[in-house]
Amino acid sequence: MKSLLFLLSLFIPAGLLAQPETPPVKARRLTLLADSIAGARNILSQAARPVQNGIAVEQTVAGDGTTGERTGTALRLAQEAYRLDTSAEVQRTLCRLFWTDFYKRQDCGYRELYHNGSVLSAVFSPDGRYILTNSNDKTARLWNFDGTLVANLNRHTNVVHIAVFSPDGQTILTASYDHSVKLWSLKGELLADLRNHSATIHSAVFSPDGQYVLTASYDKTARLWNLKGELLATLSCDESVTAALFSPDGQTILTLSGWSAQLWTLQGERIADMNRHGDFVGSVAFSPDGKYILTSSLDWTAKLWTAQGEFVANLKHKHFVQSGVFSPDGKTFLTSSTDRTAKLWNLKGELLADLGPHTNTLFKSAFSPDRQLILTGPWDQSAHLWTLRGEASGAVMQHQATIYDARFSPDGKYVLTCSKDKTAKLWNTSGELLSDMNLHQAPLNSAVFSPDGRYILTSSEDKTARLWPSPVTIYEWLQKAPFKQLSAEQRRAYGVD
Fold first, then answer.
1. Within 10 A of 348 (CB to CB), how many other CB atoms are there?
2. Could you give the count of Cα atoms lying within 13 Å of 156 in the half-sphere of its Cβ?
3. Kind and range of the H or E element at 61?
4. What is the pLDDT of residues 144-192, one digit of tens each?
């Protein structure tokens, strides 16, 4: 064992070997060993090849020395490290080794879902049992969670740019540049064909109770439909309708058109015009309780309104305001701007914090589910975390190219980013990288968490969507995975036990 410790010391910092073998210290030592072995740097053979005892130890620890066996041994050591400590370094090593080779196993949870064109988005059903993908190959496809194809939804004649599940997960909605919206069953049966629009459909959503569909089009209308495809109301505006959404209780409709937003009843009667902006209005949002409305405009302002369309506050930036979002409790909200800042406000319109400046335009920001952190994603290679006081947390999540999206996990403990650099990355809220999902062959279009946060789903221009297990899911798979465990001799030699 003395000779073994000497050999290990060549690759492990002396300070680490000198520390008491607490679980975190032991986990880090095993992680460094795993890295060394997986990199084909056979610690023992390199250090002790001329020594007979060293050769004997090498045969005990390294086995036949093949790349596959070294990777398997390294992954088992990383598994043991994870059991002791779930630090970022341990999780990162576990995931890196897994993505090197073992993701190819059919039982590990990784899946590749294929289209004949760029996959524009991929989403989970509300219960996580199904996956829905849509593509510029004119189709949407429904998949079981295990990656088997359930249905090819191929009745559109142009790019399918929207595909979503109803709130209860029993109906699918697709929208296409062919100016139509279609409703489908989970068996792939066409239930309804909504075809009254005469121009591109910009948005299509279900009502909160799933009983209605609301569409918005460049033909200057929004339209309300039932699930049979019957048209219930046409909401006519003066310009293209770029968004239409339901209030949280589903009783009113909000449309966005030109320089204003409009409120409507479900019968198609206009309630109010929110028309104080001096330029194009790019986004609109209801507060979670439905009491307030937030509009964002190219006139360098966002504006706060009551749910009845009454003006409350004018919120100023120094350039275009790209988006606005309410906190989960609805008591504060964020605005994001091309002036490279995000601003935090209360419901009186008072500025609480100024987040920035960033290095580039901000298109959107997000609150963590527990409202303790704010995530900002400028149109560049980094995403940032902030406190509610507007202080940078120090967490900067870096890619090699523009980040297209950044979001919190359902429990708020992790951040997921996807980028033009062909990768999605999983981070903790300290900004430490946990998993680098780098198997795509082209830029990514989207990345989302499963409802339980245990899997990640990405879509890419490489014509695939991919399902990735999280670090904890990989660890749980390893506990029962049917490949070679560490032998008793290896466990003793590597100091696992």
1. 8
2. 29
3. helix 52-62
4. 999 999 999 999 999 999 999 999 999 999 999 999 999 999 999 999 9
